[in-house]
Amino acid sequence: MTYKTIVVHLDAGRRRRARLDLAFRLAERFDAHLIGVFGLEPVVLPSLPEVATPTLIETIHAQRHAASEEAAAEFRDKMQKEQYTAKSEWRATLDDGFAALELQAKYADLVLAGQPDPAGDGVPAAFAHRLVMSIGRPVLYVPFAGRFEDCGSRVLVAWNASRESARAVHDALPLLREAEQAEVATFAAEKIFPGEDALYDPEMAAYLARHGARVTLASEPGADIDTGSLILSRAAERGSDLIVMGAYSHSRVRELVLGGATRELFRSMTVPTLMSH
User: Fold this and answer.
1) Cβ within 8 Å of residue 203, ≥6 positions away
2) Mean pLDDT across the chain
3) Helix axes 260-268, 125-134, angle to 10 degrees
């Protein structure tokens, strides 16, 4: 398994160039086809006809068109500069950006998107949250703060033997095989593997070794700190430049309710984080 098609989501936000740069780096590393997709949330017009005037509609469309053109210029300039035009494509929509990205992701191995930026001008947080839950592909989220020209040299895998966690490990195999250092850490291990007084899950190390990835195993007690904070603290201590983890949702009806660790990572992400659901 490798990444042969990578999709990067570009919006009107200030951090889209950082995502593009990282996406190109990964595409170059894996000799992958890179597709840039511009899209925003669907426009929700006021219900009052006197508010939703043709002038307002035209203004919104013009703003979206301008943002799309700027993003397209950045993408094409980058591909030309890097002599990567033959292995890249540009897609854009001014309507439902989520639906367009969701469809394009079905033909990709990896999708890059942005961490929700509460002070930014990109897509709203719900856009990013829904993405990993619905597309059936791993999403590599790029933080809204910091510089990340590359990632995957020092990987921290947050492992809890769940379906989502197992999928994340599998989806990250191309990166794990190339990592200089990779650690599979179980947080609150006493709750996941009761009765085990040694390490956590040696089967995972054996599984990854068969795929050519060399990893170390670690565990941390739950203490009184939430799992998301434990993951971020360990990533900082280990100098990790990539976190791999399952994404969790408790939603069963209408509203997406994220699990605690997933919610904390979305809120306080410090390094690129690959999530799968």
Assistant:
1) none
2) 88
3) 130
